[in-house]
């Protein structure tokens, strides 16, 4: 793999979608709440759900960017990406809390 291809590959992995900052906050809140329900969490409050959702969106977006063009994703793609990342994040937090 040459340097140009490697740079493009890494740049694609950090690209956000086209929903904007307010979109990320809305989607983050919804996906954080949904991930809490999926993982049978006790609920962390709306602010923590937004934080979990936004961090989850970053995690999910980073992981999926190696397989899909995440920059072209809209609201629905971003929601499912954030939900996937939020579930992964809550699963890791659950593992850390148990040990």
From TrEMBL:
* Sorted UniProt keywords: Cell membrane, Membrane, Transmembrane, Transmembrane helix
Spell out the subcellular localization from the entry.
Answer: Cell membrane
Residue intervals passing through the bilayer: 15-34, 46-68, 74-96
| Annotated InterPro entries | Transgly_assoc
The main place the protein resides is membrane
Which family is this sequence assigned to? Belongs to the UPF0410 family.
Full protein name: GlsB/YeaQ/YmgE family stress response membrane protein
The organism is Mycobacterium ahvazicum
């Amino acid at each position: 793999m040459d340097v140009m291809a490697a740079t493009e590959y890494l740049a694609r992995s950090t690209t956000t979608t086209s929903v904007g900052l307010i979109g990320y906050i809305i989607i983050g809140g919804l996906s954080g709440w949904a991930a809490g329900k999926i993982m049978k969490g006790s609920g962390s409050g709306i602010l923590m759900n937004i934080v979990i959702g936004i961090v989850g969106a970053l995690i999910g977006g980073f992981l999926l960017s190696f397989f899909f063009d995440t920059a072209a994703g809209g609201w629905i793609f971003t929601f499912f990406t954030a939900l996937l990342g939020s579930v992964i994040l809550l699963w890791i937090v659950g593992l850390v809390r148990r040990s």
